[in-house]
Write a structure and sequence with these properties.
Elements (H helix, E strand, L loop, with lengths): L7 H22 L5 H4 L1 E8 L6 H12 L4 E5 L5 E5 L4 H14 L3 E9 L1 H29 L9 H30 L5 H32 L5 H33 L5 H28 L7
Antiparallel strand pairs: 1-3, 1-4, 2-3
Helix pairs in contact: 1-6, 1-9, 5-6, 5-7, 6-7, 6-9, 7-8, 7-9, 8-9
């Protein structure tokens, strides 16, 4: 049996260091926003015959279409994915005609253009949605554990959940900030969705442990030391948490290495978030209950 409670200061130090680095990366680098948030055009197309090299096609489009900013990638299916500044529908049709003349086998797969004002609105709504989700989950847990108010008040369960969710969101967000600065990785709507999925997974795992703590407190009464109750509860749910999480990580790894390139960093965010969620639900959430326990209580 792991003595997680006894070594909680070590786990707290690891998390504090990791989250601190993540927050520093976000503060210093910020995020490289995709077209969802800053506005722009995402154009996916294929050229089946006499396919040009990516660099040559990018230079050709910049020259012929007079684009100020253009980023070109190949996707897993062999097509092209172009990102550039927002354009009107008339410009889109002009570009389409020009490229079809240059490359007879040119085929448009998808096209979307978002203006700067729409991107700003999406960014604000995404931020508000994330804050409301975190607060809503914390309030719900505080309400759900209202009957387990000894030796830890029910609102502290909610507060601890909020801290662990922040932990699980901050680390992948910091990674994306670092990748955006050094490798040009952009965040978009998928990034927000990934963080919300991480929040849902993390809170589910945390509630399983909290619920076992609540059951053991009721069964054992107030006679047994709360530290022992918490440690026993974490160990009782440890195998379930690891098995459930490990199967999910295997699926995400398979998608990461064989899935479409457009979802590459979406899956990476999930991988990092799920992994930190496993760590926080086992080594952070429950020991934090002891940290926030009232003085003089056992």
């Amino acid at each position: 049996m792991l003595n997680i409670v006894e070594n909680r200061k070590i786990y707290f130090a690891i998390s504090a260091l990791t989250v601190g680095v993540a927050i520093m990366a976000i503060s210093v680098y910020g995020f490289k926003e995709g077209i969802d948030f800053r506005g722009g055009t995402l154009w996916q197309f294929s050229i089946s015959e006499h396919t040009p090299a990516t660099a040559a096609l990018e230079a050709r489009m910049k020259n012929v279409l007079s684009l100020d900013e253009l980023k070109m990638n190949r996707n897993a299916e062999g097509g092209f994915l172009a990102r550039f500044n927002s354009i009107s529908e008339s410009q889109h049709q002009t570009f389409l005609t020009t490229l079809k003349n240059d490359y007879p086998t040119f085929e448009e797969l998808s096209f979307s253009s978002i203006g700067p004002s729409v991107g700003e609105e999406l960014r604000q709504k995404a931020f508000i949605a994330m804050i409301l989700v975190l607060i809503g989950i914390s309030l719900y847990i505080a309400h759900a554990f209202r009957k387990a108010s000894y030796p830890v008040s029910s609102w502290k369960y909610g507060w601890v959940t909020l801290l662990t969710l922040f932990h699980d969101v901050a680390i992948p967000a910091g990674l994306l900030a670092y990748l955006g600065k050094h490798y040009g990785v952009e965040i978009d709507g998928n990034f927000v969705v990934a963080l919300l999925v991480v929040v849902g997974f993390s809170v589910h795992d945390t509630i399983v442990v909290f619920d076992r703590i609540r059951e053991n407190v009721v069964l054992r009464g107030h006679k047994e030391n709360f530290n022992i109750v918490v440690n026993d509860s974490v160990n009782q749910t440890l195998a379930r948490s690891i098995n459930t999480s490990f199967t999910l990580i295997l699926v995400l790894l398979a998608l990461y290495f064989s899935g479409p390139e457009t979802l590459h960093y979406f899956i990476l965010t999930l991988l990092v978030g799920v992994t930190t969620g496993i760590y926080s639900s086992i080594f952070i959430a429950s020991p934090l209950l002891i940290f926030f326990r009232g003085k003089g209580q056992t």
